[in-house]
Task: structure prediction
Amino acid sequence: MVADTPDWDLPPIALSVRQPSAWAIIHGGKVIENRSLGSIRAGKMDCRRIAIHAAVGLTEKEYRWSLHKFLEAGVTCPRPADLPRSAIIGSVDVVDIVSQSDSPWFSSQPGNHGLVLENPMPCDPIPAKGTLGYFWWEASGALAEPKPWMHAYGAPNKDDQTLSLFDDLKPGFKSPPVKPWGED
Result:
């Protein structure tokens, strides 16, 4: 990927978001990032331009649930092994904080609020450590290596050595995956 924003143009403040939601904010039209009001206050989140940090954590259950939700919104995200983690991946404007929204990206879970996002700009992944809330980021470390399940995800026989006959086929679900963290 070629950087659309020079590194020096990135905001010094970042928000860490788990993949694949971080990817969706920058590349998939995700216009709301859900947070509790408590985490918004504790993280000193307000309206400004911020860098988006792709967090290091990602489980297969989280990926499956997110993939299903993204497909409902008409978005197909990359395979898990292709998602950078532990890196700044772009920037976005936080233009509002809302308690209600008709957006398919807004979670109706009680107590949820959403950061309303506009003007995403990708950059080449810059390795960086993340933390909760808004934080001052600096380049450090290395990108997180994909876990074995990430290479095998969606591959025939659950390995990355067997070629698929249907690479262009969109993922499908017999039944919706269970949300790995609470009810929606």
Observations:
- The CA atoms of residues 5 and 83 lie 19 Å apart.
